[in-house]
Amino acid sequence: MPEGPSIVVFKKKIERFEGKTVTESGGYNNPFADEISGKKLVSIKTYGKYLLLDFEDFLITVHFGLFGSFLVNDSKKVNASFSLFFGDELINFYVVKIKKFGKDYEFDQELNVFSKKYRLEKTKKLLLEKYGDRKIGDVLLNQDVFPGLGNIIRNEVLFLSKIHPESTVEKIPSKKMKELLQTIKEFSKASVELIEQKIWKSSSSVYKKKEWDDQEVLEYVAPKIKRKTYVVEKVQKIY
Asked: Domain Formamidopyrimidine-DNA glycosylase catalytic spans what residues (predicted)?
């Protein structure tokens, strides 16, 4: 499933359609085709694992799930689940889910590390108040707290912050927690360029690696969230 930085890369690939009018909309999983057709695509934004398509009167979100993809001015042999035509140009989305929201609906950009409105302290407060007794490795995949954060980022930021994923949230020192949240922000933003260069996964420190700096990378499946976890036990401390 694409993580937040990948969605930002997707946005960059189609943002040239901003300000253009949709001459036709289609797709087998698109109940809003008639409403979208004839509308101007005012802007394209991202929130977590969603593309946000602003049509001024309403917002369409696109979620790629596990197998979603898209093509610009091209098509696959299978039918698109969602398509946007701009005269002679088009965007075809495959195996995606879309939803419609009213123009007044707002996503909490204060939790979005790619937003200028992001507030680290708000994330920290939410984390401690609602998930203090949980394991940090589990909570990092909670999209209500960390929109866009997936398993690659989860493993990498815990390693970079030297925190073991089995650590209890409320037991992590305040300074160390702030370090983790800052690392999430910085790593997520830095990942965009790595994804564009197609070296994101290969340049990871521990994700899908057998060793780091001659030390073994332990691989196991976190029991609650059922996700592969990679840990250098001599580096990452359990709190």
From this structure: 2-87
Domain boundary among 77, 102, 127: 102
* Residues with Cβ within 8 Å of residue 41, at least 6 apart in sequence: 17, 18, 19, 20, 21, 22, 53, 54, 55, 84, 86
Contact residues for 10 (Cβ-Cβ < 8 A; gap 6+): 2, 46, 51, 64, 70
Q: 197 is in which domain, residue-wise? A: 109-231
How do residues 77-91 score in pLDDT, each as one tens digit?
A: 999 999 999 999 999
Same domain, 76 and 121: no
Together in a domain, 185 and 207:
yes
Q: What is the distance, to the nearest Å, from the Cα of residue 96 to the centroid of all Cα atoms in its chain?
A: 15
Q: For residue 101, what are the β-bridge partners?
A: 59
CATH of the domain at 129: 1.10.8.50
Q: Could you tell me the pTM of the whole model? A: 0.94
The verdict on 122 and 147 lying in the same domain is yes
DSSP 79: P
What CATH number is given to the structural domain containing 18? Answer: 3.20.190.10
Tell me if residue 26 falls in helix, strand or coil. strand
Name the residue type at position 110.
E
- pLDDT tens per residue, range 124-138: 999 999 999 999 999
Q: Is 71 helix (H, G, I), strand (E, B) or coil?
A: strand
